[in-house]
Every structure is written in C-alpha cells, then in structure tokens.
Amino acid sequence: MTEAAGWLIIGLPMASFVLIGLVLRPFLNRKKELAGYVTIGAIGGSFGLSIAAMGAAISSPGIVGWAPHEWLTVGNLSFNVGLHLDHLTAIMLVVVTSVSLLVQIYSQGYMKGDPGYVRYFALMSLFTASMLGLVMSRNIVMMYAFWELVGVSSYLLIGFWHHRPSASRAAVKAFLVTRLGDFGFLLAILYLFFHQSAFAAQGLNPLEIPDIYEAVRTGVLGQTAITWIAIGLFAGAAGKSAQFPLHTWLPDAMEGPTPVSALIHAATMVAAGVFLVARFFPLFEASHTAMNLVAVIGGVTAVFAATMGVVAKDIKRVVAYSTISQLGYMMLALGVGAYSAAIFHLFNHAFFKALLFLGSGSVNHATGTFNMDFMGGMGRQQRWTAATFVVASLSLAGIFPLAGFWSKDEILAEALHNGDAVALLVFALGVIGALMTAFYIFRAFYLTFTGKYRGGAEAEEKAHPGSLPEPVPAPAGHDDHGSLVHGTSAGAHGGSHLAESPWVMVGPMVVLALLAVGTGALFNSPVALGPIPSHWFSHFLVPPGGEFEGMPFNFGVAVTSLLVAAAGILGAWALYRRKVVAPESLTIKPVYQLIARRYYMDDLYEKVFTGRVFYGAACATLDWVDRNVVDGLADTVGWFGRNLGRAVAQIQTGQPQTYAMVFGIGVVLTAVGYILWG
Amino acid sequence: MLTAVVFLPVAAAIIIALAARSPRAVKGVALTAFVADFALAIAVFARYNTGDGGFQQVEQYDWLPGESVVFQYLLGVDGLSATMVLLTGLLGLAAMLVSMNIQHRVREYFVFLLLLQTAVMGVFASLDFILFFIMWELELVPMFFLISIWGTGRKEYSAMKFLVFTFVGSAFMLVSILVLYFSVGTFDMRVLLESDLRNLVAPVTVVFGLFFAAFAIKLPVWPVHTWLPDAHTDAPTAVSVMLAGVLLKMGGYGLIRVNVAMFPEVTQQAALPFAILAVISILFGAMVTLRQTDLKRLIAYSSVSHMGYVLLGVASVGATGGALSSVGLTGAALQMFTHGTITGLLFVMVGVVYDKAHTRHIPDLGGLAARMPYAAVALMVAGLASLGLPGLSGFVAEIMVFLGTFPVYGVLTALAALGVVVSAGYILWTLRGVMFGPAKERWAHIGDATLVEKVAPALLIIAVVAVGVYPALITDALSSGVGEALADRITTVVGGLR
Asked: Given pLDDT bands bounded at 50, 70 and 90, which one contains residue B490?
C-alpha cells in the first residue's frame, strides 16, 4: 500500500465529482447514464483500494500512516496534510466504500428518469469523497474541513429536489443544526491550539492527531483541558450523529432521495460523529466527565428516539428514528469504554440499515408513497424486497445469529461489566431500547408487507388532496399530520405500479442482506471459524494506546436481550398482524400526541427559539437600533455633514483647490494641536 | 511596472475622453485597459520575492522638490500591498465585465470607473503619505458620481452619505499625517516605519486614534458602518463590486500598514477595545443581516460582519509573543483578500439576478434555480464560501484569525466564532429564498446568465477555489509582508519597552 494509493481512495470519487460536474457536461446531456458509470467506477476503485488498505492494516500492528506534507506555515502555525491509516480507518474505509458502491448501483434504477440524474451522481461522488477524506485525515483541521464538506454535500443531497419547499427547508435545517454542534468542534480545535507552546516544547504539533494521542499520554494536556476539548468534540459528534438534543434534523433529512438516506444513515454523515469520538478515544478515556456525558446522552437518545419510531407513520421515518436510536447505542458503548463493540455495531449497522432504507425505497418505487397507512400486502408483490427487509429487521432487533445480535449483545455486556452507576443506568436504557427496537421495526414490517393493500399513492392523494406530487408550501412546523410524510412521498415516481423493483435495485439489496446476516458471527464470534480467529474484530480494533481486553461471552445478557427482542416482535405481531386488539385502543391520547409531535422539540427550536426569540426579538431589536439609534446618530452628525457636504460636493471635482482647502484645515488643526501640547 | 499598473487605467480614460466616440469603442478601450491592468497586477504579485520580503519594485522621484517640504513620487509594494494590487486588478476586471451592458452616458461611466481603478491602485502602491492621501481622496470623486448618476433608489442621499463619512475620516487622517511630518520631517512611509514614533508633536494616542477613525469608517467598524448599506443598495452593480471588493480593504490596509506597523505598542494597548468592537461588528452585523430582505442590503450587512474578522485578527497583537499575532495578522490580511473575491462574486451574481428579474426583494424571488442553473451554482459557491466552507477561501482566513486570536481573547473569539453559525443561517435562508422552492409563474421566462455574464463569476470562482485549496499561494506573500515582518517588529518594539 503506497501513499499515492491512499490518496487515490479520496481522489477517485473527488475526480469523479469534478469530471461529472465540469468536464463531461457536453457528453452527459446526450448520455446521462455515463454519470452513473463514472461514479460507480470511481467508488469501485476506492473500494478495491480500501480492501488493500485493510490488508495493509491487518499486517501492521499500529498506524500505517505516512509522513505529513506541509500545506500552510505561518508563524507558529504549521498546518500539514497527511493520511492516517490505522485499524479504525481501515474498517471505516471498507464500510463507506462498500455501502456507497451498493447504493450507487441501486441508484441507477431508483433515479432513472429523474431530470437531476447527472447532478445526483456528481453530488454522491462528492459525498463519498468527503467521508473518505474525513476518516483518513491525519490533521484535526483537515478532518474538520472534510467534516464540513460531508455536511455541505448532505445539505445539497437532502435538498436535491430543491423545487419542494419541504426539501430545501429540511436541507437548511440539517446544515444549521449540525453547524451548531460544529461550533463545539471548532472551539475544541482552538483550545488545542491554545496549548501550542506546551506541545511545541515536546516537539509535538497540536493539530496532528498522533501528536494529540501522545500529548494525552504524556500529560502535556491537563485534566481540565482534556475534559473541555472532549466536550467540544462531542458537541460536534452529537450534531452529526443526531444525538439528543441535536437530533431534530435527521428525520426531516428524509426529504432527499431514498438512496441518499441510505448512505447518510449507514455509512456517511451520521457515522462521522461516532467516528469522531472513536478517533479521539484516548482523549475521551482520559476524562471521566466526558465519558459519562457520552454514555448518558447515548443511552437517553437510544430510548428517546425509539419512542418516536413506535408512532411514526412514514416508513422512512421509522427507520430514521431507528438510526438515531442505534447511534445512541454506539455512543453509549463508547461512553462505557466499549470501543471495539461500538465500532463493531457501526460496522454491522451500516449494512442492515442501508438495506432497510433501500427496502423502503423499493416499496416506494412500487406504491408511490412512504405512508404506511396506504401500504400493506406488499410481501405478495415484492418477494425479494420483503425477504431482505425481514432479514434486516431481525438483524436490527438483535436476533441470534444475525449481525445485529453480536454487536448489541457485546455493548450491553460491556456496560454491565463496567459496573459503575452510569454504566448500569445506560445498560437499563439499552435493554428498554432493545424491546422498543424490535417492536417498531416489526410494526413497520407488518404494516407494509402483510395484510391488505390500502391503495398507495392514489389513496393518499384522495385522503390528503393536493399532497402529491407537489406538496403545498407549508410554513415551518405547521404540519398537522405530525410528520412531513407528504413532502417525502413519490419522489421521482408518479403513482403506484405494484411490482418487484428491477434487478439493478434488488441485487444490491440481496448483497446487503447477506452481509446483514453474516458480518456479526463471521468477524467477532466467540469461537474460531476456520481461518478467522475468535473475537477477530475486537483483537483487530483496540483503541490507540490500549490493549485487547477479553470480554467473555455473557450468556445471561445474551438470553435477556434475545427474550426482550422476541417480546417486542411478538407484541408487534399480536397488534399489527393478528390484530388481537386494535392498536388505537391501547394508545393514551396525550402521550401519543406528545410523541407524535416529537416532544414539541422541533416546535420549540424552530418556532419559539429561532423564530420568536432570536429572529423575532433579538435580531429585530438590533435591526431597529441600527436603523434608528446608530444611523440616527450619524444623521444628526450628518445634519452638519449634509449642509457642509453639499457645499463640499460642489467643489469635489478633483480640482487642486479642494485639496488646498483640506490641507489648510489640517494645517490649522495641527498648529492648534502643536500650540496646545507641543 | 507599478506606475503602469496605477496609471494605465487613467491613460485609457483619457483616450476614451478624447478619442472614443461609439459606446462599442469606449467599452473596447476600457475592457482592454482592465485586462491589461489585471495582467500587470499579476506580474507585480508574481515578481514580488517573498524570500527577500520588505518593499520591492520601488519607483522614486522627487515630485515637488522644495526647501523644506519634499513631496515624493514614491511607489513600492510589500507582500500586503502586492496582494491588494492583485485583488484590485481582479476585481477591476470583474467590475468592468459586469458593466458591459451599461447604456446610459457610457463615456462618462467608463471614465469614472477607470479613474476609480487608478485611485485604488494608487492607494495600495503609494509609499509616500501625501501621494497616499491624494489617491485616497481621488477615489471619492468617481465613486460619488458613479453612485449618484448610475445608481438606483435614494442614490443622491447615499452618495452624499458615503462622501461625508469618508471625508470626515480623511480630515482626521490628514491631521495625523501632518503631525508625523512635523515630528519626523518626512512623508516617506519607509522612513516612518523605521522611526521611533513614541515622541511626536502631538500625543501619540491622538495621532493613532485619528488614523484609526479614518480606517474604521472605511472598513467599516460598528458603529460607523451605516453608510455602507445605503451606498451598496443604491450603487450600480460594478460599483458594489468595487466597493465591497476593494474599497473596504483600503480601511484594513491602512489599519495594518499605519496603525499596527507604525504604532505597535499603542495597538497592543488598544487590542482589547479592538477585539470588543470586532465582536460587536461580527455579531451585530450578522444578526442585522438576518433581517434584511433586499439582497444588496443583506450582503452589505454581511460585509460589516465579515470585515469584523479583519479587526479581530489585528487584535491578536494583544498577545505578548509575536508568533501568535503573526497568525492573526496574516489571517486578517487574508480575510481582506478572500472577502474581496467572495463578496465581489456575491454582488456580481446579485447583479445578474437583478438584471433579469428587476427586483432584489427576496420574498418576490424564488425557484430561480430551474431557470438559471449557472447563476444558481455560482451564487451557491459564493454563499458557501461566505459561510466559511472549507475548500473555499473564506474558511482559511477565518480559522487563521480564530487560531491567532483565541489564545489572547478566548471568550471574545468564541463569541465571534458564533458568527459563523449565524452567517450559515442568513446565507442558506437567502439561497433558499432566491433559488429554491417551486418555480414561480412570474419567472417562467427568465433566462440564465449570458456568456459575457458568465466570465466574471468564473474568474472569481477560480480565485475562491484556488486560495481555498492551496492558501499558500497568497499567504506566503502576506506572511512575509504582514505576518512575520510585523510580528518581528512588534516583538522588537514592544520588547524594547520592557
């Protein structure tokens, strides 16, 4: 693995973006498919190189990274760019490129006929390249740069159908909420640079990631500094990974094309937050406060988001809340010190979550809607979609021996094993979350794939006239249905035509289904499987400076989590398949209302805080002050100015006399000054 | 070479005044002059040797030799002014390109535009205070007429307001220039930069304060910024491009060249007030920007906010060590360059939209992306650069300012960094309001930018991307001219005091 090959991993998709965006324009007008081929070729190349990078990482115990290159040097700021390839990076590279590759293949079918086909693939290339750059960055500012590029490409993709007000609103919301978190990330960088001289005394550079590890290890950074830097970084991570209370952007991000959601939720964007905490894990580990914060926020998010998944009507929203909840699991795992379990979960989750989204997209391809009220019975029409969806759901619910079981179980076991009060609290939250996860995902499955077909897009159009395909512009938060379902419906597709999706879409789903089954047992099984040693993943992925800690397989935890998951599935089956009782009869109206309105947090942020307090009161007051007080003052002074100015303006023609006069005034003033002070 | 850069435009203006008859000929001559001036500006920048530093390409003649008073014709550039000359060349050409469809009083218009170019180039290239001052004043004349004749809305009021504000500032500046002359006996900036300016015929703080007042009005700093929104809103597009792109930089240039470089120890004492004013400008400007519905007014207020970063970078001089201020000052100077290109681009694109839609009122616009894809992409790039997206030039300048200033004024810098969040808000809401949303019936027949209109944005986008991806292109010159040179001087001077 040479360094040039490393740069190519980022460079290929980036080149594809530039190529499609600038160079190939004239050809693309005639042959749009070319954009898809170029993208798939580039990401396929990155995938191949990522496998090579994985090989290099397996054969090397530590960091494979290369020496950094000078990029900008001013004063004591020396900012270098370089690649950082360690085991964490290698895993992320494989996850990002493989999921992205499958999503691009699927997109050829899903986006067929969309007028923005070319732009779509250009942006997908940029998105993938940014995420790859993020995981390979050796310098924290370089990482921040790619971090922001990930944010902006997701902004452009969420708002892809920019003629829809709901889409452009969701895009702006995603960017702004994550940027609020990025403010913390930025402050963390500034605070690191604040210690520049202490770093320099040890020959370290505060912006280089390996040097930051070293500084934490050798005590260059004090305890307080470590805690604050970690909290700042976590703010950034919470924004990107949609952790409570910065989660509100993610469900709205469904406005983008479904394959984009698959990529955002599985491998890019939201994974970036978890990756950030993992990347700086030595820093977090050194601060008890930061670790507890991460654990508690993660645990709360895991349950909190799951409750909203239980009531959502839009299938993509169910899956979106599920993502927030699962990211909560990863965070809580990091918070209790279960480093490899967290990344293992990220790894497994990427495949089954991408699959759930692609499945939702496939159903939408046929029905023209995402609203589960108008689906049903799709299992008969779309056997492959239904089969892969159920595999992904079982994996998500954590059923033995599918992938999700292994990582979730490991997280819970480590939380229990950790044993302090916070860890036990988040263990309890994790178990509750597991129950709800199994319930909501099978609720979605039964509503979508079983029972009678309830009419699809046409029925939705009848029930909510005018909502398809061009939604009526509605002011922020004024959606009476508790969700923005109607904006997301239909996508590039018109009405319903019930049939299985084309193979170009089903193929990637089948591949993902195989991964959703196998990755868990294969890579981190407690017993050796042929050439793969037992606990391979945990051995492979030890935190920088840490060591592998053998976590014995905890039989009690495994049985508990299995029982809990089974209970959730059973509950969903009873309510939505057998209809033992009508689900409506069990709901408690005020509670349902509270959850369906997303705990009023979106309203609070958008209407009350941003709308009333910030925009309506603070900004308006300053605007008034500016127009009346500040400018009024200037106008009062300008009263003289106007009269004097009018006279002056007459002679302002560049004539020497003007200057002579000004000179005169100046000389007199100087003379006065000279007499007074000289 | 420098003489050519400065006076080529005015030579073209004379040719136009005397010889060119048809509008076609006038535009041909003016365009040729601006292209040539840009080429010369590139040459000046490229020939500047960053390794040697200091003032280079000096041209010196006695102009008005006399017994006691010597006016010199003295031109020269260091890294800072060479960068500003490059910026002026680029933005001058952009302003020219967006003026191609001027119909009204064509000859006068281009004469004034060329005269403006000479004046601004002169400000950046002069090393003699009197020449500097003359150029500074000369710039007012074409600006006044360009706004009041070719402007829109309350153009006379705005032109007068611009004139009066700047004029008050210049009067202050002249007093200080004369104090320096009577104290040291020269107008030569090179000599002044080497002199001990602690004992003048007037208190040094007063001299410093009067200079600062002049430059703060130009930058502009809150609370003397209110001329800017009016001037921008009512000026024709090309003038907005020049105003935001280079005229504001005269303020920043003066601040660094005169206040910081000549009076480092006073700057250090004033650093805290500077930082406070900067944070007010940044946050106040950004929050008021959010409320604007006129596109040009909105960008004008965003300029107030973004120029606050220049002052914030200057405030990094408050640190005891020189190394930090080298980062902050280079960041401040880079911010001048990047803001010039980014805001220039924003105004060019607003001009394109206004030309087609005849309105700048954001609520009336919307859904234009489908009709004008090129303009949408260019405006998007400008907006993203303005909100500090990495890979585009604004980010590098902002992060350098933050890195340089945070160790000195942690809380204030953190507050200023909040401005980045607010600017994301106004930029994205504006893009959404203008370009996105459902296509409106009203704009069904609007067209995209024409070929001529595509050139200026393309030039500026290249500059924005190039500096964003590889900032050393500009920062090497800046740090040899501003950052390290000044930091060394600050360390020496201030260190000598202790």
From this structure: low
Query: Cis omega before residue B220 (within 30°)?
Result: yes
Look up tokens 């060591």; give the residue.
A547
* Model pTM score: 0.88
pLDDT at residue A472, as a whole number:
31
Q: Which of B341, B342, B439 is nearest to B383 (CA)?
A: B342
DSSP A529: B
Q: Which residues of B touch A179 (CB under 8 A)?
A: 420-421, 424
What is the crossing angle of helices A165-194 and A223-240, to 10°? 170
Query: E strands along A254-379, which residues?
Result: none
Q: What are the residues whose beta carbons fall under 8 Å from the beta carbon of B352, sequence distance 6 or more? A: B98, B372, B375, B449, B453, B457
- Work out the burial of residue A350: count CB atoms within 10 Å of its CB; fewer than 13 is exposed, 13-18 middle, 19 or more buried: buried
Of A163, A186, A678, the CB nearest to B437: A163
CB of A183 within 8 Å of a chain B CB? The answer is: yes
Distance CA A135, CA B116 (A): 49
What's the gap in Å between the CA of B424 and the closest CA on chain A? 7
8 Å CB contact between B253 and B81: yes
The answer to whether A646 contacts B160, with C-beta atoms less than 8 Å apart, is: yes
**Model ipTM over 0.85:** yes
Burial B469-480 (b: 16+ CB within 10 A, else e): eebbebbbbbbb
Handedness of CA B212, B218, B222, B226 (dihedral sign): positive
A72-76, A637-641, B30-34, B212-216: the lowest-pLDDT one: A637-641
Q: Band of the pLDDT at B320, cuts 50, 70, 90?
A: low
Q: What DSSP string runs through A185-197?
A: HHHHHHHHHHTHH
Mean pLDDT over residues A541-570, rounded? 79
Alpha carbon distance A411, A274 (integer Å)? 14
Residues B73 and A286: their CA atoms lie apart, in Å, by 64
pLDDT score recorded for residue A638: 62
End-to-end CA distance of chain B: 43
pLDDT at B68: 59
Give the containing element (helix H, strand E) for A344: helix A339-367
pLDDT at A374: 81
The Cα–Cα gap between B472 and A367 comes to 54
| Residue A452 CB coordination number (10 Å) | 7
pLDDT at B200: 82
Task: With a cut of 50, say whether residue A487 has pLDDT above it.
Answer: no
The full DSSP string for A412-457 is HHHHHHH-SHHHHHHHHHHHHHHHHHHHHHHHHHHHHHSS----HH
Rounded CA gap, B498 and B490, in Å? 12
Q: What is the mean pLDDT of chain A?
A: 82
Reference B427, options A176, A397, A566, A422; nearest CA is A176
Q: Is A4 on the interface with B (CB under 8 A)?
A: no
Q: Using 50, 70 and 90 to split pLDDT, how confident is the model at A186?
A: very high
Count of other CB atoms within 10 angstroms of residue A411: 30
The predicted pLDDT at position B307 comes to 93
Question: What CA–CA distance (Å, rounded) separates A484 from A254?
Answer: 9
Cα–Cα distance measured from residue A475 to residue A482, given in angstroms and rounded to the nearest whole number: 14
Helix or strand or coil: residue A79?
Answer: strand
Inform me whether the C-beta atom of residue A466 falls under 8 Å from chain B C-beta atoms.
no
Q: Which of B252, B234, B370, B199 is nearest to A164 (CA)?
A: B370
Residue boundaries of the structural domains of chain B:
2-497
Average pLDDT over residues B95-124: 90
CB-based contact, A69 to chain B, within 8 Å: no
pLDDT of residue A613 exceeding 90: no
B410-445: pLDDT as tens digits: 899 999 999 888 999 899 988 888 888 887 778 777
